[in-house]
Amino acid sequence: MTPTTNDLPVVADLHDEALAARLQALLDDKTKPLGSLGRLEALAQRLGLILGTEAPALRAPQLVVFAADHGLAAHGVSAYPSDVTWQMVENFLAGGAAVSVLARQHGLALTVVDCGVRHAFAPRAGLVDAKVAWGTADALQQPAMTDAQCAQALQHGIDLVRRLPGNVLLLGEMGIGNTSAAALLMSRLTGLDIADCTGAGTGLDAAGVQRKIDVLRRVLARHAQATEPLPALAALGGFEIAAMTGAILRAAAERRVIVVDGFITTAAVLVAARLRPHVLQRCVFAHRSGERGHALLLAYLKAEPLLDLGLRLGEGSGAALAWPLLVSACAILREMASFGAAGVARAAPDPAPTTP
Fold it and tell me: What is the count of structural domains for the chain?
């Protein structure tokens, strides 16, 4: 089965000038100097527009970590062996990873999705079996996925979001080699040179990064005809990136807030936005990571991230760290008093100029 754009969820335009004006008027009438909450006000307005209300409330937030292995990892594009993928999945489920700690701290429901990890996991709570295959193929030799596998991974992401409660999806991922897949997709879909899209990933030194760039340049040449989003995703991507793309499209169609983590999740948003441009209206970009290509990719998407902490862990850790800002932005809209209600005087108008 070859995936086609017609098979994917429809994502409508959220543009609503009247609602935007009402939200801005509400923010301007809060007991504060005009615009003094800075970018928190822009975030509050965005959340109101996504959820279609002047009193946005975030319900049952779902942090989903999509995990898979990559055949390209055999070429030394990561500082860690592929076994770390399944070991970290076990760590997520045991509650010991950074994202596990942050999810607990902030009351976020954490789900781990096996999209294509090279390991057999015992069934348990918090783990979703959506395995397409035991890792993608080596993209230096053949497409990472067949068209049918790509379509299956996309559908798994769509179906997962259908089953999840709430109105917020926070994105996370795990997969040794997936910064390579993200860099490949970024280069192919933006036209930027692969060297500008490629970073250290899990911690390669300068020589390792150069080897990685050389491998990825050869992969791009091998799949020079895969220029459209779905063929590029199949040829260059990973099962977790494809499943994330499907999840993003479904979440956007359902008008959920989509909290985007780092480089790999932003690459999935890039694919989704090339398929359905209005996806970007639903996205809140959590942070600018330390991975080399991420700042360029955010700039390409005209995205303004909330945080810049030099993170490059992935897992959804940046999305979890940004979460309290979304909660605060909604609370400001719903609970902060207006000048009239609080009996607080507004700023005096500027005096009229006097005639000399």
Answer: 1
189 within some domain: yes
Q: Tell me if 140 sits within 8 A of 218, measured CB to CB.
A: yes
CA gyration radius, the chain = 22
- Which sign, positive or negative, has the C-alpha torsion 109, 110, 116, 118? negative
Is the pLDDT at 351 greater than 80? The verdict is no
For residue 29, give both structure tokens: 């009438």
Asked whether the predicted pLDDT for residue 2 surpasses 60, the reply is: no
Dihedral sign from CA coordinates of 253, 186, 134, 89: negative
Placement of tokens 């295959």 in the chain: 133
In the block, which residue shows the tokens 């220029």? Answer: 227
CB-CB contact of 215 with 140 (8 Å): yes
Residue 243 forms part of a structural domain: yes
pLDDT digit string, tens, across residues 70-114: 999 999 999 899 999 999 999 999 999 999 999 999 999 999 999
Q: In terms of C-beta density within 10 A (0-12 exposed, 13-18 middle, 19 or more buried), how is residue 166 classed?
A: middle
Other Cβ atoms closer than 10 A to 242? 34
The whole-angstrom separation of Cα 346 and Cα 356 is 29
pLDDT one-digit tens code per residue, 250-300? 999 999 999 999 999 999 999 999 999 999 999 999 999 999 999 999 999
Q: Specify the residue for token string 């999305």.
A: 319
Is residue 315 among the annotated active site residues?
yes
Q: Which two tokens stand for residue 156?
A: 């798994």
Write down the catalytic residue from 41, 173, 240, 315: 315
Q: Which domain holds residue 321?
A: 62-331
